Amino acid sequence: MKGNLKKLKIAILVCDGFEEREMVKPREALKKAGATTHLITPNAKKVTAWLHGNWSKKYKVDLQLKEANPVDYDALILPGGVINPDQLRTNKKAVKFVDSFLKSKKIIAAICHGPITLIETDKLQGRKLTSYHSIKTDIINAGGIWQNKSVVIDKNIITSREPKDLPAFNNAIIKKLSKINNRK
Question: Is 113 a catalytic residue?
Answer without folding.
Answer: yes
